[in-house]
Amino acid sequence: MSTRVFGEPIRRLEDPRLLKGKALFVDDVDFPDLLHVAFVRSSFAHGKIRSVDVDAARARDGVVAVMTAEDLGDYWSPGPLLVPPPPIKDIEFNNRTQVPLAKGKVRHVGEPVAIIVAESRYLAEDARDDVFVDIEPLDPAVDLEASAAADAPKVHDDLASNVAARVRQDKGDYEKAKAAAAHVVSGRFFYDHGASAPMENRGIVARWDDRSDRLTVWDTTQAPIPLRSGLAGLLGLAEAQVRVVAPFIGGGFGPKIMMFYPDEVLIPWLALKLGRPVKWIEDREESFFSTTQERSQIHHAEMAIDEEGRILGVKDHFLHDTGAYAPYGLTVPINSQCTLLGCYRVPAYSSSFEAIYTNLPIVTPFRGAGRQHGVFVMERLLDLAAAKLGIDPVGIRRRNVLTPEEFPHKHGLIYQDFTELEYDSGNYPEALEKAATEIGFATFRSNEQPQMRADGRLVGIGLVTYVEGTGIGPYEGARVTLESDGTVNVATGVGTQGQGHFTSFAQVVAEQLGVEVAKVRVTTGDTDQFHWGTGTFASRGAVVAGNACHAAALEVRRKILDLASQQFEAAVEDLELLDGEVRVKGVPDRAMTLGELAVLANPMRGAVIPGTEPGLESSRYFGPDRGTTASGVHAMIVEVDPATFEVEIKRYVVVHDCGIVINPLILEGQIVGGVAQGIGNAFYEKLAFDEDGQLLNASFMDYLLPTSTDVPKIESHHIETPSPLNPLGVKGAGEAGAIPVGALFAQAIEDALRPLVPDLTIAEIPLSPDRLFELVHGTGSDENSGGGSQ
Amino acid sequence: MKPCSFEYVKAESLEHALAVLVEHGDEAKILAGGQSLVPAMNFRLAQPAVLVDLNGVGALSGIERVDGMVQVGAMTRQRSAERSSVLSAHVPLVTETMPFIAHAQIRNRGTFGGSIAHADPSAELPAISVALSATLQVTSSRGSRSIAASDFYVDLLTTALEADEILVRVDLPIAVPGSGFAFAEVSRRHGDYALVGVAASVQCDASGVCQQARVSLLSVGPGPVLSTSCAAALIGERPTTRTIADAAAATASDDIDPEGDIHASARFRRHLARVLVERTLTRAFARAAVSAGAAEQA
Ligand SMILES: Cc1cc2nc3c(=O)[nH]c(=O)nc-3n(C[C@H](O)[C@H](O)[C@H](O)COP(=O)(O)OP(=O)(O)OC[C@H]3O[C@@H](n4cnc5c(N)ncnc54)[C@H](O)[C@@H]3O)c2cc1C
């Protein structure tokens, strides 16, 4: 029997535990003497703190401690800059990072001002109502363009303006390209992304144990190891004294990679100080302020094309809203800048941006991490170019996608991982044609659409492409250990938030060791199990940690074969690993179980050859030269109700290439989940801040996540172009589904509305029925309505 | 998102509940399905000192046909009303509307009377209670009284109920031959409160002349809004596509004063009101014609 498992649609090994409610989440961590936390948060977007009166709160029964910034003493300090700016020429970066508790000034609604520790969360919240925060409101910087202006209220008084960064990257000579162009199309594009809204909010429990002289922290982080190292530094402990556990986590999507949220700085410190375990679980309302989010960019972009519709150059300048602080550096806008060019051959590109501080919550990467914004601009420019030339969206893309012969392809830009952006492999024409065929683009345009339009129906079709730089460095590691009962233990440092790591890593290892996947036990996110690593971000788990697992498994395989070859006095080439055994090929009775071999590898008495390492175990690391490029094409057919402007997705097709597929079921889950989030971004979710920086929809009643009735069946197809940059040939898949959906909505809905507004250009995301009504009927006054056309 | 502390009383009977209300006045609140009250408490928007739980008072639930009425106990779960064969036979507008209220899980807990007493301007049941000319039976330790649905909704989240009164029953007149109903709404997602919703209840005589046109709208004012334009334009007329469209346009421009919010501008709400009044009236009159025809044949 073959034990081939790599690439198979194996059901997720972690699911039984999750489905039976037996998995550990942070809020499940409980102790008899546990204390609970509530934060007092700013109700103003911008203001001077005159005083914080906590006396009444301290006096309340059941309250153990109340702290303000002043009470933190030397422990108060701004958080670390997680990602320094990449080495781009003439880059300007004015770094300001978040603080544990606001001191002097508040810079966004929800910024913590005081922390309350009490015997229960209820009491802590009662005490919150006792705290009096006296704030002198200041004009806030909210609107992105207004905040960029010289006379805007300053978020950080010590900076010259609200400019957090200025970055310019050029390739070729755009002005020359433009001079030679047959046409230039241009526009102002607004793209807004929202809250990651994981099913499980953030949370943290910290417990100091005197007897073991150690601190244990359970945290919903995507980066347990950096958190461990950072906490040890902050608290003056040895790294070996701090254990961070990121157990099962109900979704992360990026904001949980952010580090040293105020709660992460304060709760372990309080646990040490108070000598009792302390828990904080973020509630849904505060998550809209206390977890980072993504927001808007405004692009002014143009594209120069020749008479055949070939791109000669692209020019773009954009503003990026980074919120009140920029702890994650420039990852989001750099992604926008570098992903914009997408699958296309673009000889000249001139791109600049300004990241702007605003009095709004902090922006850090959220699934897609700025790529949506860039893809939206490029795809919309192509659609404008296609309209100018009278060709269809498939035609213009066909003329411009890179061909397989053009790889590796350099765009001449510095990417978020500080290296020059280089596409490793892909087959863009094949993906394009496959998507166009699957959605039936040509026949829809020639037959179905004209017929339906004749019946008064508004139906439209769209097709867009994207690339996603994935699987970036620096490195991850894994340790594979064969136990004496034949179990294979795998430990890695990345955290996991539902991606199926317990299964896909098991598949990678099982493949090399010839065991059933169920025999492979994967541990992630426990710093006592694996010491080194960085975290789960940038669609890198499978690529970087997966290849580390692969390397460690290969080494254990080598050790198994060496030992077995001594035992059987047979050449390694004559041995095979199958069904949990090592066998001499063709000699069925010359076999041993891997467990028996593991026992032999760990002698309890007698002598070993000096230098022998015990056990069948290996730790290996994988650090890629650079990121690998996944890509894909999404296409859909929509229908818009001409009277109510409700939108129905009739069909949704994804053609996706993430290199070699480890597990098609898990991949499908990633794609479908990504598309669902993309649909939310395109048509439902919107963080509605008013001009005072107050969020008008800080609950799931008004922040509209798409539900099962809003997400159609996704028809997904795959092509596999292996990555040459790693032994498994894999590329990341985590973010792809979410990236091009906004661009697709704009194109398809524009097409659907064409009979009503022939020259409509949709240059913004998110959309809504209300907004479509405005695009069709104008933004007239209330008086002349009621009429309207149907 | 934890509520303030409160005292909890599990009422053993209606009389017990009424006595607690007398004792605590404004400080006490009835707990029905808790689907509106408990979230409001968790946001600390509602801070009742005493909760009087009616969930143990069995006498307050049930659906029964009595003479020309279907009587729905206030504590009847919304889901039971949705599945009631008595209601689907005699008050089909209720059956048609129920699935628009939230999601099945919420309707399993949420009560018929709770929704009416809560009087959310975007709620469906207040609007259909007005369209159907329901009568609301309320009780206090001082005695009982009946309130016409159209007199019940006073202002935003405010009803004619006094602090010591409990809504015990909703009486819905049963459909007579020649009557027709329809409900429609537009919401952002299935299960959301509507951007605009319309309940239409019409009645025509054997010759097709409209005798009654009660069109009630939700999410366009502080409470359910009964269209006077529809009644004025349609009663005494044989409805046509034209008259229906005119009545819808007049309703949208004259009868409602919607507010804009992050989901829909006032202007879009007016537009939707016109579209939905037209759609529901068209359907309701078509059904009225079928019903009148069936009565003829019988
Ligand atoms: C996610 C979600 C979505 C929802 N969507 C919708 C929707 O689309 N449409 C809609 O209409 N509703 C919606 N609801 C509300 C739901 O229908 C509620 O059940 C209903 O509004 C209140 O009924 P209840 O029995 O839960 O009342 P409760 O929440 O228990 O009480 C509500 C208020 O009414 C008072 N009250 C209750 N019963 C009585 C009584 N018999 N006499 C006097 N006072 C009383 C209470 O004191 C309280 O002030 C939604 C709720 C949720 C959680």
If you had to describe this structure to a student in words, what would you say it looks like?
The complex is a heterodimer of chains A (790) and B (298). Chain A has 19 helices and 30 strands. Chain A has 790 residues and is α+β, with helices and mostly antiparallel strands. Among the domains of chain A are: 144 residues, Aldehyde Oxidoreductase, domain 4, CATH 3.30.365; 330 residues, Aldehyde oxidase/xanthine dehydrogenase, molybdopterin binding domain (Aldehyde Oxidoreductase, domain 4). In chain A, a hairpin with a 2-residue loop joins strand 24 and strand 25. The C terminus of chain A is likely disordered. By secondary structure, chain B is an alpha+beta fold. Chain B folds into 3 domains: 47 residues, Uridine Diphospho-n-acetylenolpyruvylglucosamine Reductase, domain 2 (2-Layer Sandwich), CATH 3.30.43; 116 residues, 2-Layer Sandwich (Uridine Diphospho-n-acetylenolpyruvylglucosamine Reductase, domain 3), CATH 3.30.465.10; 119 residues, Enolase-like, domain 1 (2-Layer Sandwich). At the A-B interface, helix 3 and helix 19 of A face helix 11 and helix 12 of B. Flavin-adenine dinucleotide (FAD) binds next to strand 2, helix 2, helix 7, helix 8 and strand 10 of chain B.
The CATH homologous superfamily of the domain at 296-472 and 625-777 in chain A: Aldehyde oxidase/xanthine dehydrogenase, molybdopterin binding domain
Principal-axis shape of chain A equals: globular
Hetero ligands? flavin-adenine dinucleotide
* Low confidence ranges of chain B: none
Using a beta-carbon cutoff below 8 angstroms, give the protein chain pair with the largest interface and the number of residues from each chain. A-B, 38 and 31 residues
